[in-house]
Amino acid sequence: MVTVAVEGCCHGALNTIYESLKPDVELLLICGDFQAIRNTTDLQTLNVPAKYRQPGDFPDYYSGVKKAPVLTIFIGGNHECSSYMRELQYGGWVAPNIYYLGEFGSVWYKGIKISGTSGIWNARSFYTKQRLDYSLPYDASSLRSVYHLKPKNLLKLLLSGRSDVCMSHDWPQGIWKFGNERELLQKKKFFKEDMQSGKLGSPGARAALERLAPRYWFSSHLHVKFTATFEKNVEVEVKPETTDEIALDMDAESADNDEGISGIDDNMSEEKCKRRKIIKKTSFLALDKCLKGRSFMDTLKIEPDEEHPSAKSGSLHYDARGLAVQMVVERFIKNNSDQWRALDPQVILNSASSRVALIEELEKAVEEETTRLERESPDLVVPNNFEITAPTMNTTPSPPLQYWPNPQTQHLCSKFKLLLPSHEA
């Protein structure tokens, strides 16, 4: 078992977060609003009220004055140093031992697959047909839309396959129906109107939850602790010779403790594969922001896949399918720009519950690319290649406002033949 700590909204309070860790924690997951501020200029790309525009603790971790005591993986929220996040769109180290998952990302650590998307849901941004330009300096509109969930990043998550852990900053829409809704409303009475109208939570995260049904889903954003258990019924084929080994019990659980057998299709002949209904369960956990007296952290033990190469290496590993998804989606958008711009983003959302020809075509390409990567690149260890790119608070606290090219992105694109990301979306 791997001991994992989960933290809600960070808001730059790394010192308090690390001081709050239990001694046996091996991995820390932070669910957004990380605020990786390197110098005072970075504050110009942080969307917060002026009184909260502070560097926080991160500058010391970026410059090397301090080092994260455990491997830390985080996703972006709606209060981020968006310039730094754009420099690492595919993910990468923001400081030694602190890894940004990217706008979309999927990695392995000690036999646990961790996937997720950054940002929050905004319907206007998601459905826009306008090409968005994120050249610096940001204006009032781009300062916000830069962190909104984009269709291509949701598409990547939907194609990424089932994970042990999935992370999103905002909650999946409707997740409160699978937990103690009454208790939630006692804590946050003003949620009621948005819950009834469907505005609370992300339709994109809900689509991913329904399609992927990971073992765990972690979120933050709403500044309250909340737990739920999402269940999804799926059908699988079982060969006749194996059916006697499966208990026909509504409460039966599989070896990974999150799948139950709930029935059998008696219309199938014994000679053919029988279809069984499997209950896939996702444990949902949302946490508060890092403040004294608030429920901002929880610790749990996750059973790893002992067969995965990362299980015994102790290093962070790229996920082959995640890399394949990056390649396939970015290549498709570049080579089919007119088709992509004409695509109704609602089609991507609908793919969670219905068959979509384009999605099935892309999924086939992802599977082929994954097989090739696993064959040609057996070593998928993420290199510890962090470099200081932008000036630090100790050297040049107020450098010019610009994007600082990151060697990690260049190395990743070169090694895996990924397209270099642009500052358009």
Automatic annotation (TrEMBL):
Residues 269-422 form the Lariat debranching enzyme C-terminal domain. InterPro entries: Calcineurin-like_PHP (IPR004843), DBR1_C (IPR007708), Metallo-depent_PP-like (IPR029052). SUPFAM superfamilies: Metallo-dependent phosphatases (SSF56300). GO terms for biological process: mRNA splicing, via spliceosome. GO terms for molecular function: RNA lariat debranching enzyme activity. Pfam families: DBR1, Metallophos. GO terms for cellular component: nucleus. This is Lariat debranching enzyme C-terminal domain-containing protein. It comes from Candidozyma auris. The lineage of its organism: Eukaryota, Fungi, Dikarya, Ascomycota, Saccharomycotina.
